[in-house]
Structure formats: structure tokens, C-alpha cells
């Protein structure tokens, strides 16, 4: 492993960070990630192998063959999609009948980019108006290999440019790349989830889910149409979720279980350009109860993004209620992010007056931010973390331990509002003299540099 140096050329109104070293052994690119966490495609000798024809060109839809192949491989077999072959999917597929099936994906599965067709024909889920190319479900499903699941997102991002997913009037819907519902035992290993039009994965009412050694990237070739809302992981109603070794370079949440998640463990995740490792958002829908519980997220490196460790709960006149309990964020390294730790009880897009009039009804208990290092972007001046509790909900045992994040603007400050207990480090209210002074300096750091040309 080469020594990784981040050159920070950056100018800052107050302070200048000269050079920051990425901790030894931390990969800076997908190539280095693959080198460090090696993954080999393993062919089973005991399972029946099914093959299907591959596509001849970009419009050669093999979805019927794919469906047939999965039916044949179901109950103990493997659908084998070898390297060097592309499988174009041009029709929605209902794959919820699976039971003990593997897909060895060493080639590429790619969706067609006929956006009007998909908008008219994709499956729908009411949560945030989601649409999906296909739906997977059943028991003991494993997708593994060194191949690519490609959402062909560029045209979707181009056409979506300027719109907002959470705008209730938005009518331009974009499909989720990988959707599963009612799955028990879903393993995704090795593959590269690439260029999703919208969320990369969305797992609903499922349990025993594992992602291992996966890469998730979304990169636009159009500077005015960035890949928006391409979250690596989203879920509703899930139990027992594991993520081990993920490389994520996308334009929204790196990892963000939503309503009803319990037993979640993430170990070793690298996130560039993301909105952070988030709990939620939850509490969006009026009258609906949502919970997130028993979560450990550890060994996370976050570069060039919005926030680091984050909890988001909705406030406003028509929202839901619930709780987030027992969440540990451990060993987080930040480079050029906004807040390294952020508890936001005023989600989404509402001003302080409305938030105060209609505070969040999501209780937050037993949350630990442990061993945080690195530096922020300076966007919020010297404020490196912000914890805002709702006056309408319980906020208990929220603690920062070994929290050593610095700011390019000077002495770091932690902001806390609505917390009655000691949080383990000194903190000040955002509206206090000290809080305002900490938020005031406007300084920036340079992009945390990655190798040129990048292998992404
Ligand atoms: C794409 O391949 C299919 C299947 O071989 C063929 O029928 C079709 O004509 C090809 N289309 C183009 C544009 O080459
Ligand atoms: C969920 O999957 C199980 C088998 O895994 C099946 O028996 C059940 O009918 C499915 N439920 C729904 C709502 O699809
Ligand atoms: C880039 O995105 C913009 C929308 O922001 C779109 O108008 C333009 O056509 C796109 N450029 C290309 C080359 O597709
Ligand atoms: C969690 O899921 C994994 C499969 O990903 C399974 O091996 C394990 O037994 C499950 N644990 C519990 C407590 O159900
Ligand atoms: C890392 O993320 C930043 C911010 O989104 C992006 O501008 C940059 O291109 C990414 N780096 C690489 C090597 O892709
Ligand atoms: C979450 O679970 C609660 C029950 O605790 C249920 O009422 C609610 O509908 C669930 N949320 C979703 C999105 O399914
Ligand atoms: C908190 O969550 C972690 C991670 O899931 C779990 O191991 C632990 O048992 C939970 N603690 C309590 C008190 O339930
Ligand atoms: C939030 O905490 C309050 C006070 O302990 C409790 O009455 C309420 O039921 C809790 N809400 C939920 C959804 O657990
Ligand atoms: C703290 O986290 C860093 C990575 O962010 C890790 O290298 C270090 O070993 C951790 N310290 C402890 C005591 O676990
Ligand atoms: C806050 O938002 C509400 C609702 O959009 C609006 O009516 C109000 O004028 C805003 N208040 C301020 C101070 O911006
Ligand atoms: C506070 O929360 C942390 C993290 O969930 C937990 O380990 C600890 O036991 C809690 N402390 C108390 C007093 O409940």
C-alpha cells in the first residue's frame, strides 16, 4: 500500500491546513480498495449452473431470458453471467418467487435508459414516491461476483437536473437500482453497483441482509447534472443488516436505514462525496410510528461530503413519531466534511420558526459518537459537530467520546441545543455568543485529493 497523502492547498480566511495524511492503509480509490480487501469470484461445484444468452447491443433486451434463467436456477442452482458479457434489461421483472438461488455476476447487467418507458412501467412504492426497475424477494438469495450492476443513470440525471426528490410536486421519478421486499437471507457480495438513477438499493420488509466487499459509485459526465439521491443503502422494516467493506462514491447518503430498522452492523465503509452515515430520516409521515434501534457503525472514512455521522428526524405540522435508540458510531475519520457528527431534529427543509412550532416527536436515546478524528470543511466555521434535540421529545444519553475533529478555521466547537445532560465534551448553544462566534468564520479547505487519473 502506497503512503497516502492528501494535499490540501487550501486557503482559509482564518487558518490554513497544509497537508493531511490519510491514515496508513486506508484506500484512496476503488482500485486500492479492491487491492486491500481482495475479493475473488467463487464458482460453486455443487450447485447446478444455468446460463442465458447475453445482449448483442444496447437495445437487445434479455429480460425474458433472465427471468427464465432464474426460474431454472431457483431451488438450489446458480445463474451464471460470465465476465465479458452484458445483459440488458428493458422490462420490469418480478423476482419475488426466489428460494435458494445464486446469481454469479462476473459480467454486466445494465438497464436500458428509455426514461419515458420506465416511468410508465416501473414498479412503485409509496415511500417517497419510489419506482423500481425490478423487485427481488424470497429466501436465501445470493448475488455474488466481480461484475457490475449498472443503472445507466446519466440520462436520468440529465433530465432530473434542477428538480428535488422531496418536492411534493416533483413528477419526474427515477428508479431504484436494486429493490428487494419480503426477503429473508439476502447476500450481495463483491459486485459493483454503478450509476443508479436514484437510490442504489432499497430493502423493504426483509431480514438477514448482508452486503460484503461491494463498490457503489455514481459518476456523471455532465457538470450541470450530478447524480442526485443515489444513496447506497435505504430500507424500511428491516432486521439484521450487515455491511462489511463497502466503497461508496455517490451523491447522497452513504448508508441510511429509514423507518423501522433494528440490528444493524456496518464495519469498514469508505464514503467519498456523500451526505454521511445517517440514521433516517424517520418520522416523515403523519401519524406513523418509526423506530431505529440497535445499530453499530464502525470504521468509517468519509471524504469530501456533507456530514459524517448523522441522525435525521422530521419536524413540521404533519409528521410522524417514534424513536432512535442504541446507536454507536465508532472510529469515524473525516476529511473535508461539514459537521462530523450531526443530530438534526429539524428535517426537512423547514425554518427555525416552524421547527420550534412543530418540533419532532422522535425520541433519541443512547447514542454514542466514539473516536472521531480528522477535520471539517469549514463550512460551519469552527463548529465541528451539532446536536439539536427536539423540545417535544426525549433526548437522553447522547455522548461524544474521544472526539478530536478539527476545523480549518481554528479551535473546534461542539454545538448542542435542547440537551439537558452532559454530553461528555464541552458544548455551547448555537445561538449563544460562543456559538455564533464559532459559526461565523467562513473558511474552506481544498478537496481531499485523490489520485489522477482516478480508477473510478
Ligand atoms: C440488436 O441485437 C438484436 C439481437 O441480435 C437485433 O435483433 C437488433 O437488430 C440489434 N439492433 C441494432 C440496433 O443493432
Ligand atoms: C413472503 O415470503 C414468504 C416466503 O419467503 C411467503 O410465504 C409469503 O407469502 C411472502 N409474503 C408476501 C406478503 O409476499
Ligand atoms: C447536461 O445536463 C443538462 C441539464 O442540466 C442538460 O440540459 C444537457 O443536455 C446535458 N448535457 C448533455 C451533453 O447531455
Ligand atoms: C443475521 O443474518 C445473517 C445472514 O446475513 C445470519 O447468518 C444470522 O444468523 C442472522 N442473525 C440473527 C440474530 O438472526
Ligand atoms: C469525491 O467526491 C467529490 C465530491 O462529490 C467529487 O467532486 C470528487 O470527484 C470525488 N472524487 C473522485 C476521485 O471521484
Ligand atoms: C414501522 O413499524 C410500525 C409499528 O411499530 C408500523 O406502524 C409502521 O407502519 C411501520 N413503518 C413502515 C414504514 O412500515
Ligand atoms: C445495542 O445495539 C448493539 C448493536 O446491535 C447490540 O449489540 C447491543 O446488544 C444493544 N444493546 C442493548 C442494551 O440492547
Ligand atoms: C418518547 O418518550 C416519552 C417519554 O418517555 C414517552 O412517553 C413516549 O411514549 C416516547 N415515544 C415513543 C414513540 O416511544
Ligand atoms: C480510532 O479510529 C481510527 C480510524 O478512524 C483508528 O485508526 C484507531 O485505531 C481508532 N482508535 C481506537 C482506540 O480504536
Ligand atoms: C418559516 O416557514 C414558514 C412556512 O413555510 C413561513 O410561513 C414563515 O414565514 C417562515 N418564517 C421565517 C422567519 O422565515
Ligand atoms: C448510553 O448509551 C451507550 C450507547 O448506546 C450505552 O453503551 C450506554 O450503556 C448508555 N448509558 C446508559 C447509562 O444507559
From TrEMBL:
Lineage: Eukaryota, Fungi, Dikarya, Ascomycota, Pezizomycotina
Gene Ontology terms, MF aspect: galacturan 1,4-alpha-galacturonidase activity; polygalacturonase activity
Protein role: Specific in hydrolyzing the terminal glycosidic bond of polygalacturonic acid and oligogalacturonates.
GO biological process per UniProt: carbohydrate metabolic process; cell wall organization
Key words of the record: Cell wall biogenesis/degradation, Disulfide bond, Glycoprotein, Glycosidase, Hydrolase, Repeat, Secreted, Signal
The EC number(s) this enzyme carries: 3.2.1.67
Main localization, broad class: secreted
Annotated source species: Coniochaeta ligniaria NRRL 30616
Record protein name field: galacturonan 1,4-alpha-galacturonidase
Gene Ontology CC: one annotated term: extracellular region
Gene3D superfamilies: Single-stranded right-handed beta-helix, Pectin lyase-like
Pfam family, one: Glyco_hydro_28
Matching InterPro entries: Glyco_hydro_28, Pectin_lyas_fold, Pectin_lyase_fold/virulence
Catalytic activity field: [(1->4)-alpha-D-galacturonosyl](n) + H2O = alpha-D-galacturonate + [(1->4)-alpha-D-galacturonosyl](n-1)
Family affiliation: Belongs to the glycosyl hydrolase 28 family.
Superkingdom per UniProt: Eukaryota
